[in-house]
Amino acid sequence: EAQLVETGGGLIQPGGSLRLSCAASAFTVSSNSMSWVRQAPGKGLEWVSVIYSGGNTYYADSVKGRFTISRDSFKNTLYLQMGSLRAEDTAVYYCARMGPLLLPSYFDSWGQGTLVTVSS
Amino acid sequence: EVVMTQSPATLSVSPGERATLSCRASQSVTSNLAWYQQKPGQAPRLLIYAASTRATGIPARFSGSGSGAEFTLTISSLQSEDFAVYHCQQYNNWPRTFGQGTKVEVK
Description:
heterodimer, A: 7-stranded mixed beta sheet, B: mainly beta, 4-stranded antiparallel beta sheet
């Protein structure tokens, strides 16, 4: 069974940077399309970014130019580098595998999430 | 972007009763619609994809229907473990978008 474990969240001041990690097991990150999805306190889910198995990356308009998604094949880990953080970036950040393999569409496995709080 | 609207925001149901949740898209998403269940403090779990196909391990009491812009998730007989928030998500267009969620609570 696929497992995902996020780390790296915490309290960060506005304008700061943070890197989230998502370690995967029982499947290969680089062979799948992977996303980050966030959930602000008491709010719904918001897709943030995707990295396709082929390496192409895409971002939500709300984070474009500030966040970078990447992966490390040797560590089987997904990353989200977040910069120029704003209060509205405060959320639980989930990494999620996208399925099916050939046409990444929905999110079939999720990590437990890591909380990012942007506040002075 | 495609806006997903779920109703009602909160649904109060007694155990053993049927629950019907709605999800509407601002434009057609054909059958490219998924449903997720989320319990407090937990990650979402995929229930349904392709509007009506249950994900692996999902009990038969969960069923999805609809196409185009109107979708329904039905829980035929609510069990104690089904009280949670349910999210719909379209994957016909980028960005992938979610509804705001329906909370199913004990009546």
